[in-house]
Structures are given as C-alpha cells and as structure tokens.
C-alpha cells in the first residue's frame, strides 16, 4: 500500500483510477493527482531548483496529463508516463527562465536583480547556483539527473521515462554529473 | 542493482528536500484543481464549437447535394445529331415486335420517322415510362413510299427511348442507333 497525504492506494487501485480517468472520471484523476503530486514536485524541483517554478511545472504537467490520458494505452505505465510529462514541463520552464535571464545585458544586472528580490542567504545562494547549473545541462542530462535522484525509481524506470536505453540513461547521468561537479565545485567542498 | 550516489547527488537531494519541506501540499493541490477546471471549460467550449461547425458543414453539404440533384434532374439530354437515313429501333406494342424505323427528317426537337410497312398497324413504341425521353412524329409508309392514311389520330406519335441496340442481322439493322430526342 502507498500512503501519501492521507490517500491509501494499492497498485490495483492505481490502475483502476487510471482506467476511470481515461473514461472521463474527473474524481478519479483528482485522486491520482493527490497520490502523485509529491513525486512530481520532487522531480520538477530537481530540474528547476526553485519551488515556485517547480510548482508551475507540476501544474502544467498535470493539465497535460489530464488532457492526454486517453492516449495512454497501458494504465500500468501511468507513473512513468506522468513523470515524462512532468520532466518535459520542467525543462520547458527551465528554458523559459533562461530566456528571461538572457534579456539582461550583463551578469551584474542578474546578480543585482536576484539580490533585490530575495534575501540572499547561503541556502538561497546554493539554490540559485544549482538552478543556473541545471540550466546549462542538455535536456536529457537534466532530466536524467533529476529522475535518478528520485529514490523510488529504478534504473530501468528512469530509462523508460527518458525513452531511451539503460546505457543511454546512465550516460546522460554520467555526463550531467561531470558538468555539475565543475559548475558547483565550490559547494561540494 | 542499487543506484550509486555521488556527492553531487547528495547536494541536489539535500537542497530539494529542504525546499520540499516548505511546500504547502494542499495549496498546490488546489492550484492544480483550478488549472484542471480551466482546462475542462476550454475543452467544453472547443467541443461545442466543433459540434456546431460539424453541423454547419453537414448542412451545407446536404444543401449543396440537393441543389446538384435538382440540376441533374432538370438536365435534358443533349440531342444526338440525326442524319437522314439513320435507323432506330422501335417496339410495336400491339404486335410486340421490333421493326426498323427510318429517319426521314431530323430537327432539334422533332423527327419524322418512316416505318417500314412490315406491319400495317398503328405503330406505338412502348417503353418503361421512366426511360421515355422524347416524342416524335411517325409516318407509316407503304412499299411505294407513300404515306398511309392514319385514321386514328392517336397513332401519329411514337415514343423513342435510349436503349441498347438490337443485335444486328443485316446492314440496315447495323445502322440502328439509340436515339435520344430533346423534349
């Protein structure tokens, strides 16, 4: 049994909820949201490094999932299917954030803006650095790094969500880690 | 196989967990519900518009089809040029025989057909009503080419139809032509 936020869902219940959602049962989909929103938020947060942006990505992702659930042929694959949608939504948000930041003429403008907008504590500084570093990975590297960090997902599931082979998924993780080690070396000491 | 975690993974996890602890899950759930409601409303509007559009297209297609049908029904067959000497098959209703009618004169809406005097009876060409496309005058002539007098005014007409030519047995019959006249 899985228990999240007061919702008890067995695997069979999960499949049944997906089937009912496909048939147009909005209540069933709401239960799926309750059950999956934590993992969705974790995934989006690992890509984006920012709670607000991750929240927006999760909302985007669930709306997309609701509108496209009839395309899901195998209800048992709902978890992987949903996380694929969430990571794609998170990547789209990440690209939008990068574009917004690129509108500023200089790096100093960005730093000044961030300092004005928030109390730049050490935690926030690390968060900002992670956000920036994740934005410099390729889409697949960023997705792989984010999904790899979700404890409940196996290597096989990560590869499935990414839509690639096991070896490719491991390669993306390896390359992503390599880049992040350089970009965040200051915070790894 | 257990996933191997490196220090970078721990850094990312720590930061993520720290941020997650501050998330108001009920608020997030509420926001997701609002977005889903908006998506449903947009979907209903799109569906309604699509239904009305299909109705309009269907109705237009039906109206167009109706107009085309009316046009086709009203279309009169083009007259086939009728040269003097050409023959047409005529069915004699009274004797249920077929004979050869020779066209003496041809005009756009009227032809004079001379029937060989194989029968001295009134010539009437009977066909299925829906296949009748024309009416023409018939003059029955005798062996000398003299017109026979018609006592029965009703016998002075014949209905010609478009039909398959009878199998040709001689040259005259091979000249038979399916004829359609304009009304």
Concise structural overview:
With 189 residues, chain A is mainly alpha-helical.
Q: Could you describe the 3D structure shown?
A:
The complex is a heterodimer of chains A (189) and B (183). Chain A has 9 helices and 2 strands, in the order ββααααααααα. Chain A is mainly alpha-helical and 189 residues long. In chain A, strands 1-2 form a two-stranded antiparallel sheet. In chain A, strand 1 and strand 2 form a beta hairpin. In chain A, helix 3 crosses helix 4. Chain A is globular and about 50 Å long. The termini of chain A are far apart. In chain A, 38% of the residues are buried. Chain B has 183 residues and is of the alpha+beta class. Chain B is 37% helix and 19% strand. Chain B contains 3 helices and 5 strands. Chain B has a 5-stranded mixed sheet, with no helix packed on it. Chains A and B meet through helix 2, helix 3, helix 6 and helix 9 of A and helix 1 and helix 2 of B.
Helix content of chain B: 25-40%
Query: How do the helices and strands follow one another from N- to C-terminus of chain B?
Result: HHEEEEEH
**What share of residues of chain A is helical?**
over 70%
Quaternary status: heterodimer
How many helices of chain A in DSSP terms?
Answer: 9
Which strand order do you get reading across the main beta sheet of chain B?
1-2-3-4-5
- Largest sheet of chain B at a glance? 5 strands, mixed
Number of strands of chain B: 5
Report the largest inter-chain contact: A-B, 39 and 27 residues
Unreliable stretches of chain A: 1-6
Termini Cα gap of chain A? 40 Å
Indicate the mean pLDDT of chain B: 61
The ordered H/E elements of chain A are: EEHHHHHHHHH
Which of globular, elongated, flat, extended, rod-shaped describes the shape of chain B?
elongated
Q: Structural class of the helix and strand makeup of chain B?
A: alpha+beta
In percent, how much strand structure appears in the residues of chain B?
Answer: 15-25%
């Amino acid at each position: 049994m899985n228990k999240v936020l007061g919702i008890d869902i067995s695997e069979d219940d999960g499949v049944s909820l997906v089937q009912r959602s496909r048939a147009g049962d909005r209540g069933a989909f709401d239960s799926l949201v309750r059950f999956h929103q934590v993992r969705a938020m974790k995934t989006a947060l690992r890509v984006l490094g920012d709670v607000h942006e991750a929240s927006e990505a999760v909302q985007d992702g669930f709306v997309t999932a609701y509108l496209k659930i009839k395309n899901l042929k195998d209800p048992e694959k709902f978890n992987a299917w949903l996380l694929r949608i969430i990571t794609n939504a998170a990547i789209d948000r990440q690209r939008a954030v990068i574009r917004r930041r690129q509108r500023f003429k200089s790096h100093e403008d960005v730093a000044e803006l961030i300092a004005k907008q928030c109390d730049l504590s050490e935690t926030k500084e690390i968060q900002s650095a992670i956000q920036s570093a994740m934005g410099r990975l390729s889409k697949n590297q960023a997705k792989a790094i984010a999904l790899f960090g979700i404890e409940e997902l196996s290597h096989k599931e990560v590869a499935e969500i990414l839509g690639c082979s096991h070896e490719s998924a491991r390669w993306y993780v390896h390359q992503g880690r390599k880049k992040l080690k350089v970009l965040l070396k200051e915070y790894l000491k | 196989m257990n996933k191997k975690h490196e220090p970078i993974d721990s850094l990312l996890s720590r930061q993520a967990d720290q941020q997650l602890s501050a998330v108001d899950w009920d608020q997030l759930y509420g926001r997701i519900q609002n977005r889903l409601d908006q998506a449903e409303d947009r979907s209903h509007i799109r569906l309604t518009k699509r239904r009305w559009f299909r109705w309009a297209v269907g109705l237009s297609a039906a109206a167009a089809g109706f107009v085309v049908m009316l046009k086709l029904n009203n279309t009169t067959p083009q007259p086939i040029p009728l040269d003097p000497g050409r023959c047409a098959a005529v069915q004699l209703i009274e004797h249920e025989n077929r004979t050869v009618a020779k066209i003496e004169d041809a005009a756009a809406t009227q032809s004079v057909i001379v029937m060989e005097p194989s029968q001295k009876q009134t010539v009437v060409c009977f066909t299925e009503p829906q296949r009748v496309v024309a009416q023409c005058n018939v003059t029955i002539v005798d062996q000398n080419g003299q017109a026979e007098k018609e006592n029965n005014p009703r016998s002075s007409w014949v209905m010609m139809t478009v039909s398959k030519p009878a199998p040709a047995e001689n040259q005259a019959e091979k000249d038979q032509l399916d004829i359609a006249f304009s009304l």
